């Protein structure tokens, strides 16, 4: 039985090293996907657990908002448009993870040509507090065609 456990642990460690992802990077990637799903489902209670107490967003409209603003908007019936996030880089600095990449947002008016996704760039900042990662800051802006 010990041999099986030893084998499984080694496989896990080898796969992590082979793919170059630390356990923190795997967790951040999971959380990036998870908090977007919570936003889509309107689960404000779970979002408040993932967001740090002082979470702040510089949204694509250039407005700085807090969890209080976001929750009030969601409780008023607002549904955020679908977003596909493509993580391009995760940088760790002690207990801070900085995630950068591209997002594609479905147009909010849901016009007949709803396949035209709006490209944006994003930066999300996660802080590890008592071994739990929380989203502390976010910035997202539209990519402007030249």
UniProtKB/TrEMBL annotation:
Gene3D superfamilies associated with the record: 3.10.450.50
Domain of life of the organism encoding this protein: Bacteria
InterPro entries referenced in this protein's UniProt entry, alphabetically: DUF4440, NTF2-like_dom_sf
SUPFAM superfamilies linked: NTF2-like (SSF54427)
Protein name from the UniProt record: Uncharacterized protein
Protein source organism: Maribacter cobaltidurans
Organism lineage string: Bacteria, Pseudomonadati, Bacteroidota, Flavobacteriia, Flavobacteriales
């Amino acid at each position: 039985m010990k041999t099986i456990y030893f084998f499984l642990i080694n496989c896990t460690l080898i796969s992590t090293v082979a793919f170059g992802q630390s356990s923190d990077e795997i967790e951040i990637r999971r959380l990036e996907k998870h908090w977007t799903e919570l936003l889509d489902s309107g689960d404000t209670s779970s979002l408040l657990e993932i967001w740090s107490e002082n979470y702040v967003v510089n949204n694509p409209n250039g407005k700085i908002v807090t969890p209080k603003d976001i929750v009030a908007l969601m409780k008023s019936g607002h549904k955020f448009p679908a977003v596909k996030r493509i993580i391009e880089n995760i940088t760790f600095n002690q207990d801070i993870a900085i995630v950068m990449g591209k997002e594609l947002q479905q147009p909010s008016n849901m016009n007949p040509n709803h396949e035209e996704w709006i490209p944006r760039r994003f930066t999300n900042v996660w802080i590890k507090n008592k071994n739990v990662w929380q989203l502390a800051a976010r910035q997202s802006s539209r990519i402007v065609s030249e």
